[in-house]
Fold this protein.
Amino acid sequence: MDGHIVDVHAHLYPSSFPTTPIEQILTRAKAVNVSSIITVPETLEDAQSIFELKNDLTLSNSLRDMIEPCAGLHPVTPEGAMSLIRVDQADSILQFIKDKSAELVGIGEVGLDFSPRIMNNAIAAYPDLKLDAEDLKNVQRTVLARHIDLSLQFDLPLNVHSRSAGHHTLDCLRDYGARKVVMHAFDGRIQYANKGVEMGFFFSIPPSIVRSPQKQKLVAAIPLSNLLLETDSPALGPEQGVDNEPDSIVISATEIAKVKKIDVSDVIRQTTENAYKLFPKIKKNSI
């Protein structure tokens, strides 16, 4: 496929791919002209793992150069699949962002997740705290606001999660003055997405678009100038329940071209240009 491709959202570290060497994943991505993979953690440990990969001398320079690190705290904890319950859970990752700001290309994966299951898991796990859903939502909003502050301080774009909280997330980003934003795999209504476009935000599209009428409608509604490509590896692949890798990014590009009735090369050219605009610290690699 012609033209360099940027995957703006992937979880590319060993804990996400325990049985597949990262070197093989990067090699397969490079073979389809993926030049940069913006690699987002969910926890501090993930963020540290990304930097270990970036500095892994057993990988070739060209493969290591593909890894573009972000750091941030996901609103859902991996253990127990529950909402954050305290604002201070973000303290260590926020310090990490400050320490590594010169080496980061963005801040993420951060955002809001108001899925009822996520809320209920936290409430059930900590009955003594007598939490309710509104308490948890406010914790998440405050943690996101602290990330927005660092985004503004260090001029780093935000890579944003907003499951079951589309308009709430956009409102929070607006209220706290976020300027550079990609809404990852946005699942909200088109009317809210249009508000994001009005604020100059980007929306990244995963390969799961092939099985998601909502994503197809989103792509039809949003200008190509506000679209980006992502895989969310190892999730959101074209086939549900099957590990996804960055080389599947071509599926996102192809489906966007199909929905918009344009050539896939135009999709790749414009989304790569958009990625360099939002993430200016990405190294413009030669494949």
In short: The longest strand covers residues 5-10. The CA atoms of residues 98 and 150 lie 8 Å apart. The chain has a mean pLDDT of 96.
